Structures
1.
Amino acid sequence: MALPNQYEKVSLDTFVRGLWEENPVFVMLLGLCPVLAVTNSAINALAMGLATTFVLLASGTLVSLLRKLIPKQVRIASYIVIIATFVTIVDYTIQAISLDLYNALGAFIQLIVVNCVILGRAEAYASKQKLGAAVVNALGMGAGFTFALLCLGTVRELLGAGSIFGVHVFPADFEPWVVMILPPGGFFVLGGWLLLFEYLKQKRERKLLESEGASDGV
Amino acid sequence: MSDTEQATLESAKEQEQAPPPTPGLKMLFTLGGISMLAGFLVVLVFQFTAPIIAENQRIAIEKAVFQVVPGAAVQRDFLLDADGLKPGDNAAASGERIYVAYDEQGALKGIALKTEATGYQDVIRILYGYDPGCQCVTGIRILKMAETPGLGDKIATDPAFLENFTALDAALNAAGDALAHAIVAVKHGNKTEPWQIDAISGATISSNAIGRMINASGQRMFPLIQRHLGELQQKGSESVLPTPTPAANGGQ
């Protein structure tokens, strides 16, 4: 955990951490509401991920730039106003790009305001780091969030509708597993992915322990 | 050990309390400044995207209208109620919005109407086409729904169900003030009359909602449309004659 006055040096790790080690969905379990709700198709997942990444990036930038100006007492209110601004911008932009996509994502665009990944990043990272680190970290977290949403979205669309990004991949006589695009499917698939991630993490830790034990022995 | 720990804790506490309380004015200025910046950004983006969004919505409506009224090439919207027909761009006028579709020569092809009713989960909103010539419903398109995927949402895609709406009988009664036969959805496989809708098995509630909403809207609007039919036909030639291109409707 970075202390208030310790600036992190920007490195590859600043970015990759959000993607893997501190993945907002699979490791920190943050922002699960949109994760479960909009991942019933890959395109929705991608759009939601990109929208969230933009808000993360823009709010992280502004919070980091203003970090010395914002008094501690009103920081949360300030962050929320900043985040809400960028969410509104995303809202209009998506409407301008595609109304179909906007209708598919429904209320979840506006609900990015209360996505805890974004407020969490603003409070725990961007408000304490220089612009460069905040931007790179926000990009990493956004990429990690998008990656996680895509993981869920592709699996759910594949099983629930037999297609990926609307392109049918299974033969015509494939009977879609409808429950997968319904809310319960979100929980099933999320559970599956969490299981996989935890397994990989434990495996890596065991390996690390073993190699440490071996070096201790020598 | 606990002594040192306590000492560090206390010093940390002191450090935390050390900065003097921020004056309220500074907080006010910060929040005010951020809000102004936020307002500026939002207005900027809104100004930029508003025309694009309006154009998108117009295209979406037009596409839907052309889908439910076969053969249409131009559409104009009007407001219609018991007081008569008013132009659609008159914001002060009351009435239900109707989308009147003409072909390239300005002949009336049909009228698209919006209607809605509660389905299984939430409101289903549709646009449907009405042909005053054959007095029948010529097509439906779901605009908004939250029906169960795989069951209720088949109302938008199921070809057998949509087949119901290629020529659904909606003739008026002798007095011309209501439908001769109410439009109803019947259980799957029980359709015997041309004004009945063959429901999707497993999606009866959603199918019934479609029947209910078309019936309610039709009972109200079809007699009005028939009464103002001449006027509507005339508007078609008006809209086409001055500039004989489909661009005539883009003026608004």
Note: Residues 165 and 188 of chain B are 15 Å apart (CA to CA).
2.
Amino acid sequence: MTAAITVYLKELRESLRDRRVLLNALLIGPLLGPILFTMILRLSLATELEKADKPVPVVVIGAERAPNLIEALKQQGLVPEPPVKDIERAVQAQSVNLALRISEGYATDWEAGRPAQVEIIYDSSRRGNGTQVDRLREMLRSYERRTSVMRLVVRGLSPQVGTPLVIADRDQATPQARGALLFAMLPYFLILTTFIGGMWLAIDSTAGERERQSLEPLLANPVPRGQILLGKLGAGVTFSFISLTLGLIAFSIAAHFLPVQRLEMSLRVGPRDIATILPMMIPLVLLIVVTQMLVSAFAKSYREAQTWLGLLQLVPVIPSILLAVAPFSPPPWMYAVPLLGQQLAITQVLRGEPIVQTTLFLCTVATLAAFAAVFFVAQRVYESERLAVNA
Amino acid sequence: MIEVEQLHKSFGTKVAVDDVSFTARDGEITGLLGPNGAGKTTTLRMLYTLLRPERGRIIVDGVDAAAQALQVRARLGVLPDARGLYKRLSARENIDYYGRLQGVPPATARSRIDALTQALGMQDIIERRVEGFSQGERVKVAIARAMVHDPRNVVLDEPSNGLDVMATRSLREFLRNLRSEGRCVLYSTHIMQEVAALCDRIVIIAAGRVVANGTPEALREQAHEQSLEEAFVKIIGSAAVGALA
């Protein structure tokens, strides 16, 4: 065991002097997820929120035919803009986003109590246009409702006659669950952080050591190769785990800067959540790093190891996509699948749901079993002649 | 003392080492001489148990390498063909790492490193990080690293590769000292002059086989040549012809 500790300490010391390892494990890895995530979220939230409050600029054609309508729309946030020639073409050319045309016969139809036509002209294939169109339509509808109520009252009828249905929204999602829907990506980012944290050390301590010609003399020492593997694995796991911890802290800080309150969501990754997630992730960190070491032990060069580990990073995307497209209530066996189980459990913690001890146990045991299997294979590879000699 | 008996090793269909036997004695420098690709490195790799021989035995100080690989590695100081150092560690840290792996007590390791620093003339570089060291400086560190546990047997694979004249001279000096301390030194090279300048006993390998084994004088007599170089050419040549026939 002393040899494993010697190897472990040396790998740590060397890595702490390697700017690339530090940069990846302690900065890029932990920050990449939160920063990307915050940016994506802020961008999408900001556009949604701003649109809900911002005035809606609309090119109005024939405003003089319906002064009352335009006045009512203005009060709801419409900003009329001067008419444009050949409005259909202007919208197609995307020089105008949204236009409202009051028909020629509007005034006569209105006076006669016939339905008067207004046209909304827009391009539905343009991204981000939908909200504005909806808002204009909603403004028109509310004007329409008001007018119809007044007409019924004038004719001595109850306004309720014109309202056969009352629709009320009752969203049953808890504020936390609504946030977690947005945070469905978070488990993936956390697992990615774990990958990045261990990756450079895994490459450096096997494929890198072989490429720099220091593996052969190392193996000439009277130390069982399993101990060398253990020491290197320990160093990789340490970095990966630090990376994950920093990533979680970064996320909990990032959550403060997200405008989630305005969407009536609660999104807190508090110290307690971190304390729940971290121990849960230990078996997965072990599995990920030992797999990285196994892959880079097979690789003939540093670059080849980099390529393979890059591909390996994409593996956790699979359960993420699965969970995103099929947001079903997961059957218990899914917790026994490494990666998938942890992603499910993290999502649960973020939703503020209690974690069932048996599923957590299942998840831990299954991942540890997978780790033991990969470690066994890695040890066999370490014992083989081709580890040091590319014959 | 290193005893090698009828070693055999092949990679796929290529036979790298074919029935190699020799003995390297204590207090002597034994040269393993042969052209590139003759099987020298493969033989040495089997010695320090990096590779497993298909047939044959290796005994170091009476310990069987197949049965007690760790014991054998502890008795050897090895400078392999690959001699990469950890460039982010200082020379001392590099050597100390191997001391720990060899199980040398820290205090002993410290005094050993100081003694090796003196012997190899590394006073200027011992505390510096290895990154940017010259070839000669790197070989010195690699040798010190191999000697940190004070091994009775020293195995060096082409140690003078890439060294300039001065560095080669001081390397020879160092190896002679090892011999006078009574150690067993096994030295592989493809350069005839190296062997002539240094070795008490020469084992010539060609195409994976031992073609001659003896003192320089014995080899000259065997080939009926005055110079060792001529003898070497004649022996290797006849081996090549023999392989062809």
Note: Chain A touches chain B at residues 2-3, 6-7, 10, 13-14, 17-18, 209, 212-224, 385, 388-389, 391 (CB under 8 Å).
